[in-house]
Amino acid sequence: AGVKEDSFNVLDLAEYTKNRPWWRKVFAPSSGSSAEKYNVATQLVIGGVTGWCTGFIFQKVGKLAATAVGGGFFLLQIANHTGYIKVDWKLVERDVNKAKQQLKFHSSGNKVSPEVKSKVDEVIIFLKKNVILTGGFAGGFLLGMAS
């Protein structure tokens, strides 16, 4: 009985994915963008549904955060008014002024690093290639925020 040897091709995934954009890893090796994969209606539906879900969650989390911050501030004001805590307003003013100076200093030298610029350019290229999907997402996001 002859033993037939199977030959296997070894694919080094680390080398294969090193220079590939993330959206090509997600969709397919041959697809340049999702616009080539789906028709206009499907892209609008996908973008709209994901946008609506994101907007709805963003709205709920935003309300919760605003309630927590406002409630905390309200409790601090009551504690200050009743004498449980004392606020050193001169210290608060000094720290706020120091923070303003630091913000002015950092915003005056607004040089963007090349890594950030390349990532921003990559995102802009992706958005331009997927205008319909992006438009559906934006519309769905606004609807999710409104509901």
TrEMBL record:
Keywords: Membrane, Mitochondrion, Mitochondrion outer membrane, Nucleus, Phosphoprotein, Transcription, Transcription regulation, Transmembrane, Transmembrane helix. It is a multi-pass membrane protein. It is found in: Mitochondrion outer membrane; Nucleus. Pfam families: FUN14. Its main location: mitochondrion. GO terms for cellular component: mitochondrial outer membrane; nucleus. GO terms for biological process: autophagy of mitochondrion. Binds directly and specifically 1,2-Diacyl-sn-glycero-3-phospho-(1'-myo-inositol-3',4',5'-bisphosphate) (PIP3) leading to the recruitment of PIP3 to mitochondria and may play a role in the regulation of the platelet activation via AKT/GSK3B/cGMP signaling pathways. May act as transcription factor that regulates SREBP1 (isoform SREBP-1C) expression in order to modulate triglyceride (TG) homeostasis in hepatocytes. Belongs to the FUN14 family. This is FUN14 domain-containing protein 2. It comes from Ibidorhyncha struthersii. The lineage of its organism: Eukaryota, Metazoa, Chordata, Craniata, Vertebrata. The gene is Fundc2.
